[in-house]
Amino acid sequence: MNLQDASANANVQAFLKMLRHGEGTTDEDGYRRMFGGKLFDSFADHPRQPQTATFKGGNTLTSSAAGAYQFLTRTWDGLVKQNGFTDFSPANQDLGAIALIQGRKALDDVVAGRFDAAVMKCNKEWASLPGSPYGQPTTTAQKARDLYTEAGGTFASATQPTPAPGPVPTKRALSQDQSPETSMPPFLLAALPALFDAVPKLIKSFSDDGVTVPERNEQAVTMAMQIAKTALNAPNEQAVVDTLKADPEAAATVRNAIDASWAQITDASGVADARKADVAFVAAGGEVWKSPSFIISIALLPLVYMLVGAVVGLFGQPFSDDVRSAIANGVIGLILGGLTGYYFGQTTSRNRTPPAS
Q1: Which residue has the higher pLDDT, 189 or 86?
Q2: Per residue, what are the HEC states of the chain?
Q3: The pTM is what?
Q4: Which residues are catalytic?
């Protein structure tokens, strides 16, 4: 179903009305509202005017969200590229919201009246929906259903099962043809370039191309963003991005915080799986000194001794103090810290593993 046809569907219209209620844009000025409540003047384009709001506790947040569905500038630009929208008119805002629903593979659910299924798929797109994982105030499930009904929406037959509320699905970056249950939250995905700019080594460690995050590293990227939010006292990903752009010292703060937790982050991106494989190898009767991890570790240790010897001047040309410091803090710390962290975690993991019955 194309966007124009979908926009004429009564259930789609009711679903959009319910979304606008959650975003606080159901009034006649809703299509012109920016984050924080101010109105923009022209529908020629997304206003692209970041607004700052102060919340309880003194926390501030700057966001470019605008329109009836509070599109971020980055989100709207992606919709324009995909759908060729020529302005930010109310009609195109509706179509843009439908495109986001379609991107979550929820449009068929909305049209068919599978309301709960559609909400569960879209609550990672709109933070106001029931069950949203972003920690912001949400509409209750019953209120959302009531709003949808009042707007003329109908529900599928009661014989068709709807998913019960459960754990938030795993967050992963995805291409257009992947399942929505493997989707990394859009706020996090949009914030990754700024995080990678602040901490360049994340690009090589956790990214194929600097934007998309491999499935195996989703937990590591999520952990890195959480560390950044804590370090900057930021309420969400958008606040991290805005702070990094506005404050040159913020990048150094984030880098230091991530460096301090690097062992835990790298653990989340694959070391844990290596530990599990090693535990399984030993549990199956394999001798520790024959495990791949042990052999690799032994092979790496001579590099440490060679580097130490070169740094202290036992052989080769003497290094400058700056180079010595960089090597000591970087390579040696990475190798020794990685090996120590691996075997400490491996040992504790093995100790937690119940004996075979």
Answers
A1: 86
A2: CCHHHHHCCHHHHHHHHHHHHHHCCCCCCHHHEECCCCECCCCCCCCCCCEEEECHHHCEEEECCECCCCECHHHHHHHHHHHCCCCCCHHHHHHHHHHHHHHCCCHHHHHHCCHHHHHHHHCCCCCCCCCCCCCCCCCCHHHHHHHHHHCCCCCCCCCCCCCCCCCCCCCCCCCCCCCHHHCCCHHHHHHHHHHHHHCCHHHHHHCCCCCCCCHHHHHHHHHHHHHHHHHHCCCCHHHHHHHHHHCHHHHHHHHHHHHHCHHHHHHHHHHHHHHHHHHHHHHCCCCHHHCHHHHHHHHHHHHHHHHHHHHHCCCCCCCCHHHHHHHHHHHHHHHHHHHHHHHHHHHHHHHHCCCCC
A3: 0.48
A4: 23
